[in-house]
Amino acid sequence: MLTGALVSLAEWADPEVGSFRRREVSRDAGWLVLYLLYAPWVGVLTVATARLARRHSPLDSALAGAPAAARIVVAVVVAELVFYALHRWFHASRVGWWVHRVHHSSTDLHWWSTFRFHPLETVTITVVPAAAGAWFGAGSAATAYALVATVVTMFAHADLYVPWRVVDRVVCTPGYHRTHHETGRERSNYALVLPLADIVFGTAEFRRGEPRRFGPEPAAVTTGAHRS
User: Fold this and answer.
1) pLDDT score at 3
2) Are the beta carbons of 161 and 16 closer than 8 angstroms?
3) Whole-angstrom Cα distance, residue 115 to residue 32?
4) What's residue 171's pLDDT?
């Protein structure tokens, strides 16, 4: 929780929303407690699945002698693409949106909103990208990337202002990811850590300085799905 403490202190520096809604904080706190209860089991499952995928990977031995940087690149590229595909599926399908709407129900975003996920989605978006990375030869870098992604995601949900526009093109900043949570703009900025997938597939949207209202589209709540 050291990361959470540091981000909480940083949120005092020119926040976008600028306030704490007690009811939303209480709800997010409940989801955070639930996450802390099942997160260790998700970690165990992630490591076990990644090891199994690595054991059956035809690429692991091919990259055995490669520099560690090469495995890190594989882990990042594969995990980012898999997460991007999963995230779009969660928005495009009725079943996926039924699960994912829990995360989009937040109307006041702070770093702890990161953990407002249905447990089924947490398992999916943690285990599958790590297993895919391990199968493609990333080795232990695949599971390490899952930890890094959690930290970056906490930062991306924080109520922070990052003044340098170029940073939005390199990493998912709060301004970049919070656009995805805006009402009516959920079909952009799907990326987890790097905006690269959004840029490549044409779903990147760079916005700054405009009033923001968070939460799902009313139509999405009633129909249960988005169109990507």
Assistant:
1) 55
2) yes
3) 5
4) 93
Q: 14 φ, ψ to 5°?
A: 60, 65
Contact 133, 117 (CB under 8 A): no
User: How much is the pLDDT for 131?
Assistant: 96
Tell me how far apart the alpha carbons of residues 66 and 55 are, in angstroms, rounded to a whole number: 17
Domain regions of the chain by residue span: 2-223
Residue 171 phi/psi, 5-degree rounding, is -140, 155
Compute mean pLDDT per 10 residues along the chain, 228 residues long, and list them: 50 47 76 94 96 92 83 94 97 95 88 92 96 93 90 89 84 90 87 94 82 63 45
Q: Does residue 199 sit in helix, strand or coil?
A: helix
Q: Which runs of consecutive H residues, i.e. helices, occur in 66-173?
A: 68-92, 94-104, 119-135, 141-157
Place of tokens 């990052």: 162
Model's pTM, two decimal places?
Answer: 0.83
Q: What is the C-alpha to C-alpha distance for residues 47 and 40, in angstroms, rounded to an integer? A: 11
Structural contact between residues 132 and 53, judged by C-beta atoms closer than 8 angstroms: yes
CA 68 to centroid of chain Cα atoms:
24
